[in-house]
Write a structure and sequence with these properties.
Layout (H helix, E strand, L loop, with lengths): L6 H15 L3 H4 L5 H22 L16 H14 L28 H25 L8 H6 L38 H4 L20 E2 L17 H7 L10 H9 L28 E6 H14 L12 E3 L4 E4 L2 E4 L2 H7 L6 E3 L11 E4 L2 E4 L7 E2 L8 H4 L3 H5 L52 H27 L24 H28 L3 H12 L7 H15 L5 H11 L20 H4 L14 H6 L9 E4 L11 E4 L8 H19 L1 E3 L8 H4 L1 E2 L9 E2 L1 H11 L5 H7 L21 H17 L1 E3 L29 E3 L6 H6 L12 H16 L10 H14 L21 H9 L4 H4 L37
Helix pairs in contact: 1-3, 3-4, 5-16, 5-18, 9-23, 9-25, 10-14, 14-15, 14-21, 14-29, 15-16, 15-28, 17-18
């Protein structure tokens, strides 16, 4: 509708272009003026309308997907000549629209820079929503047995509109089997629906087992494309030419040649182990992101511990396997490494690691529908031993064993136990594991928490912080109870829903579970509205992620938002029409937002599943995380080798020590935390920049990690190489097919990784060319054959099948781009949208799964109500803490916004940080950085931080 307002400008543009075209050839060869560009862009907007009508029609099959590429007219309308410049690259177009970068993305010399920027940002949001709709349609593959129904439908209802699956029933061995209905229709009720259960059952009231611990990981890719090293079908064999295996190309060789951080002074780094006594003189070079801090790196480890795990109590199988450092590629063949090769690479051929668990490895079944034969699951499946819900299970537990590790305060069982440190009178900390706690030997000496594996100082900080936040909510609830003991707290018991529950009626156990609901929602909100917008630092993603949470309408028009929410949940959500329950649901939910969908419908009844469960949407496929989601969270380059420790009381601007991250592992983290304190660690993690997600930037200590339990000579492991192996074990498709499966454009050679904006001969261009040459040496080349079709996930622009030559002439020597491991490929993506700390390949996985984990969780949708959270809990989540909403000063990046939730959590639980955090807008932006104007990535100090040591060496 907004385009109608452009009509007068389009007419004026046409006249201006007519005059422009009558100029001399000499004049027309000059660069266009801003007014000429503006005129051409406005004229293109008219053509864009008809072009977009074609694009917005979702294709019936996956072949002709959107791919994030728009027509010439659309690109010109939304981004002018810059958007046209990069249309021929494989990368998405929206990152080149006006307003999607920093100040340089805003047009100059135009009649108005505001309208083009609005056009560009709105266009980017439209492209992203179109991608999400297609991802929902084409990328859901459940491994648990429901997939045939998804394809074929059931009883006249299309698969994507199905809402209940027999595979999501509780088994007879489950202790709550009879409580949910046993052999009959299973429906959760009573206490099972009031809180988040330990194992995650009954989040979905009519699919009790969904998302619970022990369920199978799903897939986002066609089952036939998984496990490419097995060559199970003709397309896979054509795509890879039998060149792949678990250890080919060699993962340690890839790690050493592509991932290693190059050091200017190796003696000061010592392979990531630093210098004695945490000397400030230590130095480990790494490529730094100017707009993301180390706190953000540990935050994502904190999150993944909540979402997924392939391990059982911190371990894989007892059987060990080799992890490479054995072969290299020479003239297209793998040949053994020489002793000189091994010494030069620094890898270890004797390293061994435990094999991953496999749930099913028998041959999958098949079924036929509309003349096409499908696999009913992947060739192998694995179990998620964690709950898949965003339920803070790393704090509160995900099974009976992990819950035993969660310690509660005996003086007030509503609280988590925090204890004083011997010899200190200050704040309390999580207690240490005791001799009778169910833990592995290597976890001894750590703080007690549900998920204790891979423990570091960063995890220690975040676990202590949110234990304090849990208790802060309890303290506030107790305060309100003391003031108004007989007031209705909002809570309701499904067994007696009409009975008012007063504040003084709430038991400690009930308050504990309410506090868990609140903390889990806070964590989800922080990740959605604070961490991710800093990870993806531009205006479309700021708006998009806030829309995921609270909607594009925000709080500006609550009546319209409420009405639209009811239409989405009650009309589209209840529909058996596939288009309504998927495409329309996804699009229209962007108005009111996903969080709270279905919670404000008229006549809400806590006893009826159509209300408590009414806001969830699984889009026809049971929710669990897919293996591909795990893959794109391999983010080890974010972590520096050394932490720049600061002392808050002495001088926050000075780096006092450089502490090796590896020396804060497991039980070593506890004395660091307790002796140095939360304030100092907050300052340390908040001010230091984390590492860029790119090649040659993985932590050295992870390539040389000492693990005493390993069955190997050196008892070390290259975790970076292990990332590659685990992806291969889990059957993740290689990079190019991965992109095609997700609706992104394929690459046709290693040269496509190069950033086309890098100036020839510049350091960036030279570095990229060196990496491309290394890729060519590691993965090789072959003579292509046009008769070999390699994929059915996409087609060429002319509709023909994609073949082995990828557009090159038959018989050409081409790069083995199809063989590149996905983790290698996304780190090699040098071209990214402005402010993206991750690649666009990783991001497209988030578009689907970041939305689904909100859409599928009733505690974030229809059960976000006082009956479950209490009135105080609902307000706490909505307002980012007790009391009313606190607003930031001014309009950061052009937006009026509340003080962010993580910032308030930090100030509430570590009040000494308030002066430090006062000028900080986003807690995951380095705290001493000046954010500048409109999504600046400049690394310069804010007022008061000019003497900060980190600004002396850029």
């Amino acid at each position: 509708m907004r385009l109608l307002g452009f009509a007068p400008f389009i007419l004026a543009a046409a006249c201006l272009l007519h005059a422009q075209n009558t100029r001399t050839a000499n004049q027309s060869s000059k660069p266009p003026s801003p007014k000429e560009e503006e005129a051409k862009a406005l004229l293109a907007c008219g053509q864009m309308v008809s072009d977009e009508l074609k694009v917005l029609k979702i294709p019936a099959d996956r072949g002709p997907r959107f791919q994030g590429k728009v027509s010439e007219a659309t690109a010109m309308c939304r981004g002018g000549y810059k958007a046209l410049q990069f249309r021929g690259t494989p990368w998405v177009d929206w990152g080149n629209y006006w307003g999607t970068g920093d100040m340089s993305s805003l047009p100059t010399g135009f009649l108005s820079s505001k309208l083009p920027a609005e056009r560009g940002v709105a266009g980017a949001l439209l492209d992203l929503e179109l991608q999400r709709v297609e991802l929902v349609k084409f990328n859901l593959f459940d491994n648990s047995g429901s997939y045939p129904e998804y394809v074929q439908g059931q009883n006249g209802v299309g698969g994507p509109a199905l809402k209940v699956w027999p595979e999501m029933r509780l088994g007879s061995s489950n202790p709550f089997y009879n409580a949910v209905g046993g052999d009959g229709v299973q429906v959760c009720k009573g206490d099972l629906i009031r809180w988040r259960t330990v194992t995650g059952i009954c989040n979905d009231v009519v699919n009790p087992a969904m998302g619970s611990s022990g369920m199978l990981f799903a897939r986002n890719v066609e089952f036939e494309t998984s496990f490419p090293d097995q060559g199970l079908n003709e397309l896979t064999r054509n795509r890879h030419g039998n060149r792949l295996s678990l250890l080919e190309p060699d993962p340690q060789v890839i790690s050493r040649r592509l991932f290693t951080r190059i050091q200017s002074d190796p003696a000061k780094c010592q392979e990531g182990y630093g210098l004695p006594n945490d000397s400030k003189a230590a130095s480990c070079d790494y490529k730094k992101a100017p707009f993301f801090n180390v706190l953000a790196a540990f935050w994502i480890q904190f999150m993944t511990h909540d979402w997924f795990s392939h391990l059982e109590e911190g371990h894989n199988q007892t059987e060990y396997m080799s992890v490479g450092c054995a072969t290299k590629l020479v003239s297209g063949a793998e040949v053994p490494l020489t002793s000189e090769d091994i010494q030069k690479l620094g890898c270890r051929p004797d390293d061994r690691m435990d094999k991953g668990y496999v749930a099913q490895d028998s041959e999958p079944g098949t079924f036929t529908y509309n003349g096409h034969t499908y696999l009913d699951r992947a060739p192998k499946t694995m179990r998620n031993t964690n709950t898949a819900w965003w339920d803070a299970s790393m704090l509160y537990g995900f099974d009976d064993t992990s819950r035993q590790r969660v310690k509660r305060d005996s003086s007030d069982p509503a609280k988590l136990l925090l204890v004083s440190v011997a010899g200190q009178s200050g704040p309390r900390y999580l207690p240490i594991f005791g001799p009778n706690d169910p833990i592995n030997a290597e976890w001894a000496g750590q703080e007690a928490t549900a998920f204790p594996d891979n423990w570091t100082i960063g995890l220690s900080f975040l676990h202590n912080l949110f234990a304090r936040e849990h208790n802060s909510f309890v303290v506030e609830f107790r305060r309100v109870t003391a003031q108004t003991p007989n007031t209705d707290c909002g809570l309701r018991d499904p067994a007696n829903p009409k009975q008012v529950v007063r504040y003084r009626d709430v038991t400690p156990d009930q308050l504990f579970e309410v506090a868990r609901l609140v903390v889990a929602a806070e964590i989800a909100k922080i990740h959605t509205t604070e961490w991710t917008p800093q990870l993806l630092y531009n205006d479309p993603l700021y708006l998009g992620m806030n829309a995921n949470w609270s909607g594009l309408l925000g709080t500006s028009d609550p009546l319209i938002s409420k009405a639209l929410s009811e239409v989405v949940t009650r009309n589209f959500g209840d529909s058996t029409n596939v288009k309504k329950t998927t495409e329309w649901y996804s699009v229209f939910s962007s108005g009111p937002g996903i969080f709270g969908l279905g919670s404000k419908v008229s006549g809400y009844d806590i006893t009826k599943p159509e209300y408590t469960n009414g806001g969830v949407n699984h889009f026809g496929s049971p929710f669990n995380f897919p293996e591909e989601f795990v893959s794109v969270y391999r983010l080890h380059p974010l972590v520096p080798d050394l932490l720049e420790y600061r002392d808050f009381k002495t001088d926050p601007n000075k780096i006092a020590k450089r502490v090796p991250v590896v020396e804060t592992f497991q039980g070593k983290a506890t004395p660091f935390m307790q002796s140095m304190g939360m304030v100092n660690w907050a300052l340390t993690l908040g001010r230091q920049r984390l590492g860029l997600l790119t090649l040659h930037n993985s932590p050295l200590f992870l390539q040389n990690l000492k693990m005493g339990r390993l069955d190997s000579k050196a008892q070390q492991i290259d975790v970076v190489a292990l990332d590659i192996i685990r992806d291969r074990e889990h059957g993740v498709p290689r990079f190019n097919e991965f992109r095609r499966q997700y609706g992104l454009r394929q690459l046709t050679s290693f040269d496509d990784f190069r950033d086309p904006a890098a100036a020839p001969g510049s350091p960036d261009s030279i570095e990229q060319q060196d990496a491309i040459q290394t890729l060519r040496e590691l993965y090789g080349q072959h003579i292509c054959d046009t008769s070999k079709i390699i994929t059915d996930a996409q087609v060429n622009d002319d509709g023909s099948p994609i073949n082995d030559c990828l557009g090159h002439p038959n018989g050409t020597v081409i790069d083995n781009i199809e063989d590149v491991d996905t983790v290698v490929g996304y780190l090699a993506e040098y071209r990214r949208p402005h402010g993206f700390a991750i690649s666009e390949t990783q991001f497209v996985v988030f578009i689907l799964n970041a939305s689904r984990r909100l859409f599928s969780d009733r505690f974030f949708t229809s059960s976000f109500r006082p009956e479950f959270y209490t009135t105080l809990g609902v307000n706490w989540v909505n307002n980012n803490g007790p009391g009313g909403i606190m607003m930031e000063k001014g309009t950061p990046n052009g937006h009026t916004q509340p003080v962010s939730p993580m910032k308030r959590v930090l100030m509430r639980n570590i009040p000494e940080l308030t002066p430090e955090l006062e000028p900080v807008i986003n807690a995951f932006d380095p705290w001493a950085r000046d954010r500048g104007q409109y999504y600046s990535l400049a690394w310069k100090p804010r007022p008061g931080a000019e003497s900060d040591d980190s600004f002396k060496a850029q």
